[in-house]
Amino acid sequence: MLATPVVRLPSDELGLLRKFPSPEINPDIRLSQTFDMTADGLRAVEFSAVAIGQVSGEIRLELHDITGHEDRLIRSADVGAADVVGVEPYRFDFSPVADSKDRVFRLDLTASSASPAEGVAVWATKGERYSGGTMLVNDNPRWADMAFRVYAQVPTGLQLLAARSLGSGSSRGQVVLGALTASWIALGVFLSAFSGMPDDKMRGGL
Predict the structure, then answer these.
(1) Is residue 2 part of a domain?
(2) For the chain, what is the domain count?
(3) Would the pLDDT of 106 be above 50?
(4) What beta strand segments (E) does the chain contain?
(5) H or E segment to which residue 127 belongs
(6) pLDDT band at 172 (very low <50, low <70, confident <90, very high)
(7) What is the CATH number of the domain that holds 145?
(8) Torsion on CA atoms 140, 14, 52, 73, rounded to nearest 10
(9) How much is the pTM?
(10) Domain limits at 53?
(11) pLDDT class for 8, splitting at 50, 70, 90?
């Protein structure tokens, strides 16, 4: 439990039965996905693109902060359409958003004005799978969500315990932290040795 991240980041895996390709990205079509961010330091968004024709041009990626009545463009990039469909999934990396927790964001994908993309769509899944946002086509909500995942530097329970112990200057807290760390190391050594033991010895020991 201590090694598990303390919050769950927004995401929606691609469904098996209700998956579908979105409309093709072009100058008249803007695809979007909104999400409620659960941690500070938002630094990347992944999505799954698919080629639906001859791929060319560039895609404009934008991250907007739409908390409340705001609509602030905070990160953007133009990327080659071939690069987007060339990996699965594509990861839009950007400089971390320090105060992203409890903010609402929108990822926009549209054709670059300089070199409009052709032949690219994204994978999505029908239904209300992700409750913290929705997929949009030209700002119109769809009963669906993109297949997406966000990234941030989320601390684990052990890291939070370490920060609190060091911040308080409590010698008792540091002793507890040291004991927990030692127990994790000992458990790892034990499991490693146990997994490498031959089957006959394992049965004999039992």
Answers:
(1) no
(2) 2
(3) yes
(4) 11-12, 19-21, 31-36, 42-47, 49-56, 58-65, 72-80, 90-97, 104-111, 118-126, 135-137, 140-142, 144-146, 148-151
(5) none
(6) low
(7) 2.60.120
(8) 50
(9) 0.75
(10) 11-151
(11) confident
